[in-house]
Design brief:
The protein is α/β, with parallel strands linked by helices. It has 2 domains: about 1-295, Rossmann fold, CATH 3.40.50; about 380-505, GMP Synthetase, Chain A, domain 3. The chain is built from 18 helices and 18 strands. The chain has helices at about 5-20, 25-40, 45, 50-55, 60-65, 70-85, 115-135, 170-175, 180, 190, 195-205, 220-235, 260-265, 385-400, 430-445, 450-455, 470-475, 495-505, and strands at about 100, 110-115, 145-150, 160, 165, 185, 210-215, 245-250, 270-280, 280-285, 295, 300-310, 340-345, 350-360, 365-370, 405-415, 415-425, 460-465. The chain has an 11-stranded mixed sheet with strand order 6-3-7-8-9-10-11-15-14-13-12. Strands 2-1-5-4 form a 4-stranded mixed sheet. Helix 11 (about 195-205) crosses helix 12 (about 220-235), helix 14 (about 385-400) packs across helix 15 and helix 15 (about 430-445) crosses helix 16. It is globular, with a radius of gyration of 23 Å. This is Putative auxin-regulated protein. One of its GO terms (molecular function) is acid-amino acid ligase activity. One of its GO terms (cellular component) is cytoplasm. InterPro entries: ANL_N_sf (IPR042099), GH3 (IPR004993), GH3_C (IPR055378), GH3_M (IPR055377).
Length: about 500
């Protein structure tokens, strides 16, 4: 009989009660004030006169007027490069010990984002908030005394110019509190393995020794790991190895395309809980079972601003026009796409993280990620967000009773005219022409701008089917294997030629 589980669940329930945020606007006002106060004497704070902003009756408006929007390149060029040259007190007090190497899908080079002690504390607090919120779900108390497995990047951090460098999941895992280490799997030694295949094989070999109740990781990589564990033990369900498994914390990409294949691995109910952890901080997590949306962590060291996602506001490189006005959380509306802007305890200021979001419930500050500013396919005015693409593909899955877990798309000229070229990872026997026609129709029905573009300059849709695992092969070809790697939904111009050569070689076209 479980004794410790009910005690832990009760303690988490108390923590959830006392840390629950009712007024998100007030929480955000406090965060902005705290950020400005703490960074007043930094070089950034002096340049933009944080002292004067703090005196203003409307701090948000003063903040908006005083400080320009930044993307990674503008922060790096003028500010973060100074940290890397040994200067301190640049955008946040002191000198960070860590740099997070972004594993994102855009850009030719990895980004190196400062990770301060305050940011690590904020991530830890948000993680505790996420676990506390699990008490809102229908879980047995004994789940809370069992083990949790996190499949992230390696915790073996590099030393670069005095900084410890790695992906954010690896940095966070390397800072797990001692009292949690006994429950954390795969454990420090396995988590430090760099080679993806070796790490997964080692997890499979050790898996029978663990009593896993919670798992977390990006769906594509976690599914491969679970299948490897099942293959190693020659079983039909992951519950034959981990009978206590009750919670899967997902994130990084949309889960819905993976739902059917994941549920095929389970023979017991597993709660799916969504999270939003970026290299720049822990942004949101699902808080209640009646909603699949995630609640912004409005009291966790991040100040959020929102710019309506309109094509005329976005420059060609995906950055924002400086003259557009940002809204605070009290000014947003549901079901509107916004460019997400953050200012953080990591020393990022009015920072364009690159994601677009929409509020599903303003009162609860609950959001869905709708796409990327650079993944907004707007050649010849088609104005396709990733969310609209995923919605159309979901309808395609239902129509043809198939699974489409991964995809990529880009605009390309064929015989001098623009077409959208789609590559779908699917085992369906439906031919490519029928898939293209159905996808085209779904997008026209859901998106007026796309329909207009199709009647004018966008002449057609091409679909190429690729087999299961094809995108993992591409990632391996790109030397990107691991728990945080994501496939670009809209392939950048500089990758299209290499991609087409890869497809031709692998498919024998």
């Amino acid at each position: 009989m479980a004794i410790l589980g009910p005690i832990i669940k009760a303690a988490l329930n108390i923590h959830e009660y006392f840390t629950h945020v009712d007024d998100h606007h007030k929480a955000q006002q406090r965060v902005l004030k705290e950020l400005l106060e703490k960074a007043t004497k930094t070089e950034f704070g002096k340049e933009y006169n944080f002292k004067e902003i703090l005196k203003d009756k409307d701090m948000h408006e003063a903040f908006d007027n005083a400080i320009p929007y930044h993307d990674y390149h503008s922060m790096e060029e003028k500010w973060w490069s100074r940290l890397k040259n040994g200067e301190k007190d640049i955008t946040w007090p002191g000198m960070p010990s860590y740099m997070a190497r972004s594993s994102g899908t855009t850009g030719k080079k990895s980004k190196m984002i400062p990770v301060t002690d305050d940011m690590l504390d904020a991530i830890s607090a948000a993680g505790t908030r996420q676990v506390s919120a699990l008490t809102n779900f229908d879980l047995d108390a004994d789940v809370f005394e069992k083990e949790a497995l996190a499949l992230g990047s390696s915790t073996r951090l590099e030393e670069v110019n005095g900084f410890k460098v790695g992906e954010i999941s690896g940095i966070a895992a390397s800072n797990i509190p001692e009292f949690l280490e006994s429950k954390y799997r795969p454990g420090a030694d396995i988590a430090a393995i760099d080679d993806w295949d070796k790490k997964v094989q080692t997890i499979a070999e050790k898996s029978a020794d663990w009593d896993i109740a919670m798992i977390s990781g990006i769906p594509s990589w976690l599914e491969l790991m679970l299948k490897k564990v099942m293959e190693y033990h020659k079983v039909d369900s992951i519950h034959d190895v981990w009978p206590s498994l009750s919670v899967y914390t997902t994130g990084g990409v949309a889960f819905e395309p993976y739902r059917d294949s994941f549920e095929a691995l389970f023979k017991k109910p597993v709660a799916i809980v969504d999270t939003y952890l970026a290299s720049e901080g822990f942004i949101a997590c699902q808080q209640r079972p009646e909603s699949t949306a995630m609640q912004l962590i409005t009291d966790g060291g991040i100040y959020f601003e929102f710019v309506p996602f309109k094509p005329e506001y976005i420059l060609e490189d995906g950055s924002l026009r400086q003259d557009v006005v940002a809204l605070d959380i009290s000014q947003v509306e549901p079901d509107v796409d916004y460019v997400l802007i953050i200012s953080t305890v990591g020393g990022a200021w009015r920072y364009l993280i690159g994601d677009t979001i929409a509020f599903t419930d303003v009162n609860h500050a609950e959001i869905k990620i709708t796409g990327r500013t650079k993944f907004f396919l707007n050649v010849v005015g088609s104005q396709l967000s990733v969310l609209k693409m995923e919605t159309a593909l979901g309808e395609l899955q239902e129509k043809y009773n198939t699974s489409i877990k991964e995809f990529t798309v880009y605009a390309s000229k064929i015989d001098g005219e623009f077409h959208h070229k789609w590559f779908l990872e699917t085992e369906t026997e439906t031919n490519e022409e029928d898939l293209a026609d159905a996808l085209d129709q779904k997008l026209q029905e859901a998106n007026k701008n796309y329909s207009v573009a199709r009647s004018k300059a966008l002449k057609g849709v091409k679909v190429t089917k690729v087999p299961e695992g094809f995108f993992n092969q591409w990632n391996a070809h790109q030397k990107k294997m691991g728990g945080q790697v994501k496939m670009a939904k809209v392939l950048s111009d500089d990758k299209q030629e290499e991609w087409e050569a890869f497809v031709k070689e692998e498919l024998g076209q």
